[in-house]
Amino acid sequence: MGFVFPYPQGQLVPFSLFSLGVTTFYPEGDLDNETKFSLGGALGIKYFVNDSMGFRLQSRLMATSLGSDADVWCDPFGCWTFETRNWVTQVDVSAGIILKVN
Questions:
Q1: Cα dihedral sign for 26, 27, 31, 37?
Q2: 19, 39 Cβ separation under 8 angstroms
């Protein structure tokens, strides 16, 4: 599920995008499939040449949480636990042509 937030400026339309969802990993071999929480964000711009044609440029970041690891760190003054979250991240850049059909 995602949401697009446009910020119209005449022919130029900057936008941001936010999404939440799940990612399913299908590993090779004898490993089980896993489904994990994921989120994404994007920034982009649309430029309209006229009412029926334009261009779009977008950069998107997608991240999937793989869970966390807990560790213990000790020094002469005591011991502390801390958690490290592991992520798989992907980045893409895309461009396209916008055609409106009336």
A1: negative
A2: yes
Whole-Å CA distances, 13 to 58, 59, 102: 12, 15, 20
- Specify the pTM: 0.70
Give the tens place of pLDDT for each residue, 11-59: 999 999 999 999 898 888 888 998 988 999 999 999 999 989 999 999 9
The two tokens of residue 30 are 């004898």
Read off φ and ψ for residue 27, nearest 5 degrees. -75, 155
Q: Where does residue 64 rank: exposed (0-12), middle (13-18), buried (19+ CB within 10 A)?
A: buried
